[in-house]
Amino acid sequence: MLAFVLRRLVQAVLVMLTVAFIAFMLFQYVGDPVTNILGQDATPEQRRQLRSDLGLDSPFPVQFARFVGNAVRGEFGLSLRQGRKVSSLIAERLPATLELTLLAAVLALAIGIPMGVYSALKRGTFASQAMMTASLIGVSLPTFLIGILLILVFAVTLKWLPSFGRGEVEAFGPWTTGMTSVDGWRHLILPAITLAVFQLTLIMRLVRSEMLEVLRADYIKFARARGLSDRAVYFRHALKNTLVPVMTITGLQIGGLIAFAIITETVFQWPGMGLLFIQAVQFADIPVMAAYLCLIALIFVIINLVVDLLYFAVDPRLRVERTSLAH
Amino acid sequence: MKALAPWLLAATLSLAAPLSEAITLRVANQGDVQSMDPHSLNESLQLSFTGNVYESLVERGKDMGLTPALATKWTQTSPTVWRFDLRPNVKFHDGTPFTADDVVFTFKRAAGEGSDMKGYTNPIKEVRKVGDLAVEIETTAPYPILPDTLTTLGMMSKKWCEENKAERPVDRRKGIENTASFKSNGTGPFRLKERQPSVRTVLVKNFNWWGKSEGNIDEVVFTPIGNDATRVAALLSGEVDVMEPVPLQDVERIKAAGLNVLQGPELRTIFLGMDQKRDELQFSSVKGKNPFKDVRVRRAFYQAIDEETIKSRVMRGAASPTGEMVGAAVRGFQPDMNKRPAYDPDTAKKLLAEAGYPNGFEVGMNCPNDRYVNDAAICQAVAANLARIGVKVNLMTETKVTYFPKILRRDTSFYLLGWTPITVDSHDVLSSIMATPTDKGQGQFNLGAYSNAKVDELTLKVQSETDQKKRNEMIREAFRIHQEDVGHIPLHQQALAWATAKSVQLTQLPNNYMYFKWITQKSSPK
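^ inputs. structure came back:
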C-alpha cells in the first residue's frame, strides 16, 4: 500500500514537472508581454529595459529553473495586466469557481443518478425514451450554446434571472460565497445548470448502461430467487455495484468540470479562475497563465491520486489479489 | 428592477441633496479598467474611467476643444515656457486642498519609474512652482501642443501619495503592490467607493466638486462583461443601462428592441502599410527586387481596393472611408484632401503592367483578428480585391498578442494597422507613422519604412511652429506629399458604438472617453 502511494507520488511529481515544462514552452510562443505593458508608444530603449527587468532575456534553462523554483513556493510574481500578486488573484477567484463547480457536480449527481436508474428500470416507456433523447441533446450541445440559450430565455425574454456576474457575495475571511443571499443564488442558477448539463447526461447514460449490465448478472437472478423485494434488489444490490465506475468517472470529471468552467465563466462573466485565465491569455499575462495551468494540473493529479486510493477502499478484490500474490 | 441598498440611499441623501432617490447608472464594458492609478497605463478605457475621478489641468470639451479644468488659464510666456494658473478652492476627495505642490509632484510621478505616461512628459524639461496656485512648465524645445498633451494627465495629491507609499505607480517588475492601484484620491466629480477588479467598480458623486455637474448620476456601477452576446443580453434584459462596444451585428437588434445606439466616427484611422525598405520583400514571389518601392504598384493597390464595399458589407455601414491618415476631429485634418482615388481595377491593372507586373505577383499579408472592428474580415476583403488585379495575397491573421511583436520587428511585407493620435493633433501621425524611422523613436510605427526627406523636414518644423496658420500649411504639404507617394493606404475611421437604455442621455467623444458628469438618466417608473 505504502509502496503504491509512493510510486503514485513520484509519478505525480513527474507529471507536474512535465506540465510545468510544456506550459513554460508554450509561453515562449504566446506573445510579447512587453508590447502589452508599454503600449504602442514606447521607445526601443524602454522595451529593452523592461525585457531585462522581467528576466525575459536570460537563457531558457535559467528562466525555467527560476519558474519552477518560484512555482513550488506558490509564487508566480505580479500579474502583468493587473499589477497584483498572482497568488492573491487566484485565491480571490478560487471560491467562485469551486462554488460553481460544486453546485454543478451536486446537480449532475442528484439528477443524473435517479434518471439513469429510472431509464434502466423502465426501459422502453415513453418517459425513459424522452430522457434518452434529451440526454443525447445534452451531450451534443456545446456548453457556450446552452449558456447563451439559457440567457436568452431566462434573462432576456422572461427576465426571471440575471444574465451575468455573481451578484451579492458575503465574505468569510478569505472565502467569499453567494450562497447566503437570494441574489447570490439567483446568479448561481443559470451558470450551474449550464455547467451541469453535460456531466448530468453523461452520468445518466453511464448509470443506465451499468445498471442494465448489472441487472443481467447472476447474483441479481439469485437475489430475485431468494424472494427479495424489488426495492432491495434494485437499490441494495444493483445500484451499489453500479456506483463503483460512476464514482471513478465522477471523480475524474470534476477536473473536467473545472476545465469546462472556463467556457461557462466566460459566457456568464463569472468571476472565477477560468475567466481569469481567458483574460490572461488575451493579454499574454504569462504569470497568471502559468499559475493557472499548474494549479489545474495539480488538481487533476490530486483527484487521480484520491480516485486510485478510493479503488482500494471500495473494491475488495484489489486488496485480495495483492494478498493472494503474497502467498 | 433597480433595487438600491437602503444604506446607499441614506448615504447619498444625507448631504441634503434635493433628490427623492439616488440615481444609479450601470455601465458595462468589454474589458476592465486595469488599475485605479491614472499614470499606470496609457490606454483609453483606463484614462477615460480614471478621468472621472482624477482631473487634468486642461480638459477636452464635448467638441474635443480644450477647456479649463484644474488650470483656469494658460499662457506661453516664452517659446519654451508656459504658465498655468491653477483653480483656487479645489479639494481632493480626502479634503486636502489642491495646490501647485501637487502639480509639481504629479509631473515628477508621471515622468518616473513605472509610469506609462512618459510619452507626455518626455518633452518637458522642468515644472516649477511659482506661487501656491501657479506653475511654470518649461519644455526642452518649443512645443506648441503642450496643453493638448496634458488633457489625460490626472493630478494626484502629494500628501496622499506619500502617506500611502504610492509616490510611484505600481512596478510590475519589483513584485510590490501599490495602494494607488485600488484606492484613489482625486479632485474629480466622482470618487471611488468600491473596487473589485474584473467584477465591479463603484463610483459615487463627489458633492464637494468645484464644478457644476450637467448630469444627474449619483452612483456608477461599472462591470466588465467580456462576452459580446452576454453584454448585449445584459442590456436587453435591463441589467445594465449603458454598454460598449456594441457588436456590429447586434446594432439593428438593439435598435429594434427600442434602445438607443450611438455611433460616431472614432479618431482611429485604419490603414494598410507596405514594406518600402527591403531590397527584396520577405514574403513575396518577386525575387531580387521590391515591387512596393515602385509608386505605381502602391497606387495600383490603392485603386484596386473597394473601400465602399468594405464599408457596406464588412463594416455594416459603421465606418467612414477616408483618403487621409487622420480623422475629421484631428487638428490638421484637410477637408478638401479627404478624397480617395477612384476604385478602378482596370487602371490598377494597367499601373501594375507599367511597373512590370502584367500578371501580378504573390505577397504575404499580416493582419490582427482581435484588435480592430472586423479587422480580419477587412483583410480578407482586401485580398479578394487584389486577386482581381492578379495579385495573390497570402493572408495570415492572428491574435494581437502575437501580431504586434511580429510587425514591430518589421517582419512583414504588407500589414494592417490602426492609429489614434493621442494628442488629437496631426503631428503625432506625422512623427509616428510618416517620418523615416530613426532610433530616437521617430517613425516608430512607420513599419514599412516609408521615407521622404521633405516629409521628415516638415515634421520637424511642425513640431515647433507656433503660428497655427503656417503650421497648418506645413501639415497640409506633408499630407499632400504622403498622399502623392501613397506612403500608406488609408481605409476608414471605424465607428464607435455605444448602446444605452432609453432613459439615458450622454455625450460620446470621438476618443471613446465616457464622462459620467455629462450623463443624465430620467427616472423610469418602477
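Residues 1-19 of chain B have pLDDT under 50 and may be disordered. The first strand of chain B starts at residue 24 and ends at 29.
thumbs up if we can close this ticket
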